[in-house]
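Predict the 3D structure for this chain.
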Amino acid sequence: MILARRVIRPGLAACFAALVIAGCVPGARPTPTAVTETPSPIPTPTASPPAPSPNPPTSQPSPTPPPQPPVTPQATPTFTPTAQPTPQPSPTPTPRTPVPPQATPTFTPTVQPTPRPQPTPLATRITTADIVELVRPSVVHIQVNGFSGPGAATGIVLDKLGRILTNQHVVDEAREISVTLSDDRVFAAQVVGEDPSVDIAVLRIDTLAGVGPPQFGDARSLRVGDDVIAIGHALALPGGPTVSKGVVSALDRSINAGRGLLTDLIQTDAAINSGNSGGPLVNMRGEVIGINTAEIPGERIGFAITINAALQVAQLLIVEGNRPIPDIGIEGINITPALAQIAKLPVRRGVGIVEIRKGGPADGAGLMVDDIIIQVDGRAIRDLTDLSRLLRQRNAGQTVNVTLVRGQDVYAGPVVLGAQPTPVPATPTGGK
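Done. Predicted structure below.
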């Protein structure tokens, strides 16, 4: 048992409200100029006229006429013989010849290093219309008759065994469910299982002959700013599903959709209207990376469950059917650095308890309002998403060890998880 209950004022909820009211939310390198070194001009030796022979033709009387012609070679600067490959001419050009090598290292190796790999050609990227044609056959229209009246929504083919993936709030309290395939065939559907904590449900129809599932991607590869496409039967308009395009606005979002806290969501500005619930959110490779679930009306802010979480829950529902959803019995808020500074908290991250459900697991274990949960079973809890992910991996009735901060002290103790109470029927924003 953790210590007896006490209330610390001011509470986290009040500090959180004050934080909201205050609005505290959180060249090119110069191109080096190539200096071309101009070699100094080599002085051309001036041709000095040859000295006259002291003994012209007297030494040889008859063959002397030929010596007269040497005067003509004198007119042509015959520096080849005078240059004579003696060591004197060679040293002079030799020191000058290094000048051309100095011009040779002109940074050519640095300007053109080893060739870089070329980016993938744009031709490999398919267009929005291509993606719609690729995914649309796997998108189905769901008609529901329930206690609150008729409703319409969307689903996607999960496998070739007649299973359909959609939102839990779509089929909640439904008495009759029908599924219309992309080829206009209509089938009655039964609920295989549903999990309101993740807003995922699995349906089954008799046959999916000729229709297969889409390509499922990995939401962990998403980046803020990635283009995405939402497909769904918005407002149940005739003529097939509606397509809208936007970007990934944020990741790891948590919202209260009126049926409890939904975590690990993709936020997008792609329009998600009433009737889009259960439809796919698709990346630009034609892969389903989310299941549309809710929107904030008039704000162009929509949310989708990551396909990773949806498929994990769907597999459990197929194998185990409906099971009690593990619950710790609290309402919490995310502790952020800004809230920690305002409330002068000893930790900057965690889940602050703002309400304890009477008779629930936390109440029985002695947890108190304003306690901050920082670990469960030795795993760090930074926010509600971390807590929700961990609880999904546990079972109702299982004991977990909770570490929390109370005041300036740290406490740890066991908590026996209960079953999440059945939510009051309600249609969340962006629902059926």
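The mean pLDDT is 75.
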